[in-house]
Amino acid sequence: MIKIAIDAMGGDAGLATTLPGIISFSHSYKSDDIEFVVYGDGSLIEKYFAQNPCQCIYSIINTGSKIISCNEEPIHAIKNSRGTSMYESIRAVSDGMADAVVSSGNTGAYMVLSKLLVGTIDGVLRPALGNVIPTKTGRTIMLDLGANTDCTAEKLFQFAKMGKAVAMILLNKRNPIIGLLNIGTERIKGTEILGRTYDLISQDNSLNFKGFVEGNNITDGSVDVVVTDGFTGNVVLKSIEGSVKLVAEILKEEIKSNILSRIGYLLGLKKVFNNMRKNFNPSLHNGAPFVGLNKVVVKSHGSSENIGFAHAIQTAVELVRNNFVESIKNSLGEFNGEC
Amino acid sequence: MIKIAIDAMGGDAGLATTLPGIISFSHSYKSDDIEFVVYGDGSLIEKYFAQNPCQCIYSIINTGSKIISCNEEPIHAIKNSRGTSMYESIRAVSDGMADAVVSSGNTGAYMVLSKLLVGTIDGVLRPALGNVIPTKTGRTIMLDLGANTDCTAEKLFQFAKMGKAVAMILLNKRNPIIGLLNIGTERIKGTEILGRTYDLISQDNSLNFKGFVEGNNITDGSVDVVVTDGFTGNVVLKSIEGSVKLVAEILKEEIKSNILSRIGYLLGLKKVFNNMRKNFNPSLHNGAPFVGLNKVVVKSHGSSENIGFAHAIQTAVELVRNNFVESIKNSLGEFNGEC
């Protein structure tokens, strides 16, 4: 059995998303070897599952209504985190009671608590938040997406190595192509840190390095892994989501505004747009692993819906099944970084 | 008459884009009060205009074939820049021979040479590269887009003030809403520099400050000006262009793959997609002003086509007509920044 600890109180909607998410997962994915340990307000959770029976194996750990809010500063959140569903669900994996934990809660607090309780793999300078982004030819892994707002060359070098391991599992690629995000492709472009990172990755023969890539290369399928600092990665990811949403909305309005195009839409394009929406539905790419920790810790988007949370659970399951932590350890090779 | 100096040799295609761009401008925009001073290989330019008569007023300054390549480091480029079309066209505005200069050449070299020859407005810490981005409700100005890879709080504060002036002219907004790009909207989020910038802008009552905005807010129309450092701005702009292009391409393929949707497309959606393409055609937003210089200096995208270069010229004209430099000076108010 694979045991997944669920922080049921996390995210904008809390239980209203996480519990339906568990049910949605059980309907959508192979789950007969999955056991959920659900952390949160016991009575509410019991009540929900009584009204909405889940075709899954689960146990409930009552942590009451104590939660970490989304706006709390990590430092402050940690002080008062004991007993919260987030803290206890992370502790479950650190204690070996569960194989992975999934939460939609405060990203900063989740990251810091995970590092404290689960610990960082020896040699890892900073764990990173990685996620899948849809591209023209398939999908790409981008990291970091917000765990580290500033990064040294050594950290970025490690993100490249760890990103390779993530792509091998989540994208099923044998020798993932790695790109380093910059404002130009020439070696002279960008910051001094990126220049040094470029050299570090270039000198590592185990990495299939394409060199510097630009913003437009993230979605054109030219690389499997995009390496960047957490600030840039976070802003870029949201920019891409926003612009894709915008295009869809404008197309919708344009179509409505014209009777012929409305007919055309009903005639054959409805399906096209549904495929499109499915392709780019952030929910179907939800579930960002913290890369570099001693256990599988997956972050679900705070505003993700049921299906999104279900996909985050599936990501956690996939990572456990493929010995994610071992893969990351192996990817690091000889430790040659500096803090 | 408004005199526009043209660096005809700049950009990926050089004369093959800039000269048709001038002609395209003369066809598309009111140009009877515009005079072009075209810098480049005189014989080639004469030959082109002999074969492709331009309905415009122009003079040619022969700078031969000497150019600054796109990959040259600014420092090195500057040493050998004397006599190039870029150098001489910038000098034209600095000498008062022209009101504005437009180039598609090496951005770094163009920036440095412009600062050297044209000079920075007193009190401006660092000029910024600003540009227009299509949004749900219209357009927004984002700056910096690559002139400053790292920025202090004081620089970003000035970008906010100068961005307001740009939005008032190019977006025709009376009191533009300003957003500061970050990885979250709460004051506690992001870097220490962004926190200090947040406070500086908040304390300035002349600025209509919305606070921190995230990547998805760039295109959702919630702000008129997006303030960010040049690294983030450049990567984000290209990410947005790339993802929009991707959506269009996938839709096209989806439509082709289905006979009913092909009929639907021909029936009424072709127009929709053409409007869409027009809306998001980077060419129709090409022309990024260097904000904070003593003259109007406009950067055209290196890979822009004729129409794009024409639009960059139009941007320069619009800025000259609206006393851009004066507006920037007024926007700065009392100088209170530090290098």
CATH secondary-structure class of the largest domain in chain A? Alpha Beta
The value of Rg of chain A in angstroms is: 21 Å
Count of separate structural domains of chain A? 2
Encode the helix/strand succession of chain A as letters: EHEHEHHEHEEHEHEEHHEEHH
The number of strands of chain A is 11
What share of the residues of chain A does DSSP label as strand, in percent?
A: 15-25%
Large-scale geometry of chain A? globular
Mean pLDDT of chain A: 90
CATH superfamily of the largest domain in chain A: Isopropylmalate Dehydrogenase
The CATH topology annotation of the largest domain in chain A reads as Isopropylmalate Dehydrogenase
Strand order within the widest beta sheet of chain A: 3-2-1-4-11-10-5-6-9-7-8
Largest sheet of chain A: 11 strands, mixed
| Number of helical elements of chain A | 11
Helical residues, percent of chain A: 40-55%
Helix/strand class of chain A: alpha/beta
CATH architecture term of the largest domain in chain A: 3-Layer(aba) Sandwich
- Distance between the ends of chain A: 38 Å
